[in-house]
Amino acid sequence: MDNVFIRYIKQGKIRSTDDLKRTYRQIVMRTHPDAIGSDRLVEEYINCRAYYEEAKAIIENLEERHGEEVKNYRLLFYQEFYRLERIDRPYAFNKYYNSRKEIELSKQRAFEYFSRWQVHRVGLYQQANRSYDQIKSEKPRGPYRKHALLFNLSPVFHNILSYQLTGLSFYRKQLRQNFDVILHQLKERQFHKLVEYIQFLVKDMDNGPVIHESN
User: Fold this and answer.
1) What integer is the mean pLDDT of 90-95?
2) What pTM was estimated for this model as a whole?
3) Which among 24, 42, 87, 169 could bridge 98 via Cys, Cβ 3.0 to 4.6 Å?
4) Which residue from 122, 48, 117 is spatially nearest to 77, judged by alpha carbons?
5) Nearest to 45 by CA among 205, 166, 174
6) More reliable by pLDDT, 81 or 13
7) Can you tell me the distance from the alpha carbon of 14 to that of 72, in angstroms, rounded to the nearest whole number?
């Protein structure tokens, strides 16, 4: 799907930041979980916000704003992590399957944003992601254990990312389902850095959803 906001900029329908904000409010309400009373379009809502951020950067450049702007690397990291979660999955459960090149580029961006946001946790991030990559690459074992650990772990990241990018407290509550059991499974496999990384992301939820920082 193309970025509708960028398309409108090219068509001259959006000429300023205010135009962009008005258009975003109109479009986002068609998918916002609170507006439609359901989270069935949460993915479209998150994509809409990401498209808005891309278009915002273009508009600000067109308006020739001077001075170096302080980027919200926390927001950029969670948006890229969400994108990576969609494309870097075993093919069987990935309807957004992309090339290895695109996956690697997304990984590089996520690492860059995280390292600028959490400079003192770069080592933790690298070790945790090596463990996560190992889990994603594991071959099925037994008729009822196919990717069992990944199946259990994926909802953890889904709920963390959905909370950060929608601001809905529902995802914080949902995260707690089987959370301790999943951490125990990771510890049994000696994935201690991955556990520490997940605990950091969960703790960061106490700082409030990152999406609110960009409003």
Assistant:
1) 52
2) 0.69
3) 87
4) 117
5) 166
6) 81
7) 24
